Amino acid sequence: MSKNIIVIGSCNTDMVIKADRLPVPGETVMGGSFMMNPGGKGANQAVAAARLKGNVYFIAKTGNDLFGKRSIEQYEDEGIHVENIYSDPTLPSGVALIMVDVNGENSIAVASGANGSLSPEDIRKAQPVIEKGDILLMQLEIPIETVEYAAQIASEQGIKVILNPAPARALSNKLLQNLYMIIPNETEAEILSGIKVTDWESARKAADIISAKGVDIVVITMGSKGALIKENNEYHEVSVPKVKAVDTTAAGDTFCGSLCVALSEDMNVLDAVKFANKCASITVTRMGAQSALPYRKEIDVL
């Protein structure tokens, strides 16, 4: 029987402009191309997992508007269970404005809207679904008290709680102790550990500090370098396939969603990270967020 992946997090509509370079403050850069896509870290990770054949339940909040309704239709088309996506009658759906340059680097501003009202009470309503889960995946584009509450109830049920701590912020030891795995990038790892991550050695030091706070497994993603795993007292440096990046917007979200699928298929952590690196390497070769997420058949070919 397929294991259940529960994703709790944000859903946005991404408005993306690709230009030769990112503007500096006060500057207008002309000549860009525009696209509009569904996005948000929670939704990106849920869609990534669903396209890779994960059995995904998504818990989120939208506004009662066109963006929100269209997003839910798209999640249903991806095969995601959407019964616990709630509607806020007063706030709009979340929106992200994204600039991308020719090298694939990006700059993002987010208006959270209804994402900011996803509450512990909403999680209580969804608790029967959460308790059917094997893996719970979350990020930090929803209120921290909601993340902490969900982590606690899931951990108490023996569910593997995985946190992608993005956007970067400090976290309580109580939350960290309820996690099975944490997946920070270099910036997020620095905030959590106080160690500036620039290479494998500094990544190991940061992972040591983070794991000492109570997290079983630390996976630090390091862009084109790959990912460092600290599992118990073992370390693994996992390289990433070399590709020409055109847009890195959803690379981290692909990594997190695909890692959960691999774990749900009983891969060990090392093999799961190798699988996630492969999936993320496809995403960065395409424009957009959810539009760039790969399907399982593409991975199987590789």
Architecture overview:
By secondary structure, the chain is an alpha/beta fold. It has one domain (2-16, 32-292): UDP-N-acetylmuramoyl-L-alanine:D-glutamate ligase, CATH 3.40.1190. 35% of the residues lie in helices and 23% in strands. The protein has helices spanning 41-51, 66-77, 120-125, 127-130, 144-156, 173-177, 186-193, 200-212, 251-264, 269-283, 296-301; strands at residues 4-8, 12-18, 33-39, 55-63, 85-88, 94-100, 106-111, 135-138, 160-163, 181-182, 217-221, 227-231, 234-238. The strands form two sheets. A nine-stranded mixed sheet has the order 5-4-1-8-9-10-11-12-13, sandwiched between helices. Strands 3-2-6-7 form a four-stranded mixed sheet. Helix 2 (66-77) links the parallel strand 4 (55-63) and strand 5. Helix 1 crosses helix 9 (251-264), helix 7 packs across helix 8 and helix 9 runs antiparallel to helix 10 (269-283).
Could you describe the largest sheet, including whether it forms a barrel? 9 strands, mixed
The best one-word shape is: globular
The proportion of strand residues reads 15-25%
At the fourth level of CATH, the homologous superfamily is Ribokinase
The oligomeric state of the chains shown is: single chain
**CATH fold description:** UDP-N-acetylmuramoyl-L-alanine:D-glutamate ligase
Radius of gyration: 18 Å
Number of strands: 13
Class per helix and strand makeup: alpha/beta
GO biological process, one term: D-ribose catabolic process
Pfam families: PfkB
Active site: 253
Cofactor: Mg(2+)
